């Protein structure tokens, strides 16, 4: 097991005050005043996010189930692993199972937790729990009313080529693909 990363210096910033500056149906934005390690103060603005799951659906023949989805902030279609927001009080594994079924119609008989990643540490507390799903069985998708996506399959070499060429830039999909490469090679 890897040794826990520590620091010789006290690098912590401590909250002095906090203000909720925006609250939407999905995200919240806080503005905190913090004391710095040298005693000075600074302002920190960050997005509060409930967390999400990412599913790497792997077929028995090695193909991978993916989605194409338009993402409004960047005004383009992205290639992604299925993923979704964890509801308040929801178990992350149950969320992953629900999201796979809702977005793709597939269910899986074999689930493995891979890791947790923090995808935007400078401005958000969001975390993503990544799961590997095997033993896939097709079914009927049940997309949310405002959700539109296309489901397709690819091979690991195709995905690695798409990452290298910049066709896959979504961080959860890039990281998940690299994990999958190591897992399938028996290195992790």
State the main characteristics:
alpha+beta; 20% helix; 10 strands; GDP-mannose pyrophosphatase; NUDIX_hydrolase_dom; 2 domains; four-stranded mixed sheet; 188 residues; three-stranded antiparallel sheet
Question: What can you tell me about this protein's structure?
Answer:
There is one protein chain. This protein has three helices and ten strands; from the N terminus they run E-E-E-E-E-E-E-H-E-E-E-H-H. The protein is α+β, with helices and mostly antiparallel strands and 188 residues long. The protein has two domains: 35 residues, no CATH class; 133 residues, Nucleoside Triphosphate Pyrophosphohydrolase (Alpha-Beta Complex). The protein starts with 13 loop residues before the first strand and ends with a helix. 19% of the residues are buried.
CATH class of the largest domain: Alpha Beta
Spatial sequence of strands, sheet with the most strands? 7-4-9-8
The description of the largest β-sheet is:
4 strands, mixed
Strand fraction band? 35-45%
> Whole-Å distance between the termini?
12 Å
Give the class from helix and strand content and strand pairing: alpha+beta
CATH H-tier superfamily of the largest domain: Nucleoside Triphosphate Pyrophosphohydrolase
How many E-type strands? 10
Annotation field: number of helices: 3
Average pLDDT confidence is 96
- Taken together, the total number of domains comes to 2
- Low-pLDDT residue spans: none
CATH topology heading of the largest domain:
Nucleoside Triphosphate Pyrophosphohydrolase
Q: Give the oligomeric state.
A: single chain
List SSEs in N-to-C order: EEEEEEEHEEEHH
- Cα radius of gyration in angstroms: 19 Å
